[in-house]
Design goal:
Number of strands: 6
Radius of gyration: 20 Å
Shape: globular
Strand content: under 5%
Helix content: 40-55%
Structural class: mainly alpha
């Protein structure tokens, strides 16, 4: 069987990112981003870990990138988060340790202890905040910087731990309404803009629906935990609360159902959304991430009708010219490679009546990243040197290569590298 052309690009990217001591990546990647899962060596290590786990590359490359990330002490405490410092490195190390029995266990055990302390402090602060009737910051609970991201790690590493249970208890409490200045708001409402900072465009704040920074990530964590057998009090009710919110704000468009990236205070008071142009259906915001989260929730609840609706929404998004036109890059976070990976992951769990349609949408997404008759070596070079993308995981070539693997081979990841995204 002939290998998919996209795999040539994966091989070229891996070759050009083989040695952190010789490849030219720019000072930021190896200095300020040294501990960053999104942009630095831990994310690049994930590419080499996945390829080694599949027998397509040497483990030495993964070891070298992990060593580069940990050459100096790793950050823990308030300055760390799931994509930076100890938790970020621990995710990459766990992906490697799963395939190297006995390796890294002492380091992982030590990091797990530091992570548990940090999570405990964050949970205490979050519950005090709720008790005082204050609104959360996005960084309190989101996937990238907050407790949902910590939950993603704990669910994979120590799902039966008391710390994991405490994170789930917090997520359930986050779905309870909160009264702020006499107005009843969803518990995840934040007074800032989507960047996490005050924003004049969002007077009164907003409710974020995205996977990266909003309630979509909380939904995915609760759903994956339930499917894994980790269930806490009020767990299913919390799932239904989030689903009901998403149902309330779902819009019917020519290209199928879509969900807003966020809901503003004015929209909440009016009860309907401000019209907007079609937006990209990405993992971080939009239909790709939200459809997967709702599919996982439907599977956890045994709701076949909702499952089919969520999967059909993704098919519609991936075949709608207007939504695809709004997708302008190739990255994992919000580009074509990420869409292909989300489609493949969703198809793996899809209802038989929908799975084929999802897989049928993948070739066009792959072709957008690797057009026919392109030189993979040249394409890899151009992508690595792209200042907006660079070498990293979320926006860069390491993420593109990882995201191309499953759609090109019709096989799920071996290393569960994408557990940090809460789509599996």
């Amino acid at each position: 069987m002939t290998a998919h052309p996209a795999l040539g690009l994966v091989d070229a990217i891996a070759a050009q990112l083989a040695d952190p001591d010789t490849v030219v990546l720019g000072s930021r990647t190896l200095s300020s981003d040294r501990q960053h899962l999104a942009y630095g060596p831990p994310g690049i290590a994930l590419l080499h870990i996945e390829r080694a786990a599949n027998g397509c590359g040497p483990w030495r490359r993964a070891h070298d990138w992990l060593a580069t990330a940990s050459r100096q002490p790793l950050t823990s405490g308030p300055d760390s988060h799931p994509f930076y410092g100890v938790p970020a490195f621990a995710h990459a190390l766990t992906c490697a340790a799963d395939h190297l029995p006995g390796s890294y266990q002492r380091a992982l055990d030590a990091m797990d202890g530091r992570i548990a302390v940090d999570v405990g402090r964050r949970l205490d602060a979050a519950h005090r905040r709720i008790d005082a009737g204050r609104l959360p910051h996005l960084a309190e609970y989101d996937v990238i910087r907050g407790l949902t991201g910590y939950g993603a790690y704990l669910l994979r590493r120590i799902p039966g731990s008391s710390t994991m249970r405490a994170v789930l208890d917090y997520c359930v409490r986050l779905t309870e309404p909160i009264t702020h200045h006499g107005e009843t708001l969803p518990g995840w409402w934040t007074k800032t803009g989507p960047s996490g900072s005050p924003d004049d465009r969002f007077p009164g704040g907003h409710a974020n629906t995205g996977m990266a920074h909003g309630i979509g990530g909380v939904l995915a964590l609760l759903a994956l935990a339930a499917r894994n057998g980790s269930v806490t009090d009020g767990h299913h009710a919390a799932l239904r609360t989030i689903l009901t919110w998403l149902d309330r704000w779902k819009k019917r468009a020519d290209g199928g159902p879509v969900w807003p990236y966020w809901v503003t205070q004015d929209e909440l008071r009016r009860g309907h959304l401000t019209p907007s142009a079609p937006r990209r259906p990405s993992w971080c915001y939009g239909t790709a991430g939200l459809a997967r989260a709702q599919q996982l929730a439907a599977l956890a609840l045994g709701d076949a009708s909702r499952q089919i609706d969520a999967e059909s929404a993704l098919v519609a998004a991936l075949t709608n010219p207007e939504q695809l036109k709004a997708t302008t890059d190739n990255g994992l976070c919000h580009g074509f490679a990420g869409l292909a990976h989300a489609a493949a992951r969703t198809a793996d769990d899809a209802h038989p009546s929908i799975a084929g349609n999802l897989r049928a949408a993948i070739p066009a997404l792959l072709a957008a990243v690797t057009p026919p008759d392109t030189d993979p070596e040249l394409t890899a070079t151009v992508l690595i040197q792209d200042e907006k993308g660079g070498p990293g995981l979320l926006d860069g070539v390491a993420g593109i290569a990882l995201a191309l693997l499953s759609p090109s081979t019709a096989a799920p990841p071996r290393s569960a590298w994408d557990a940090c995204l809460l789509i599996a």
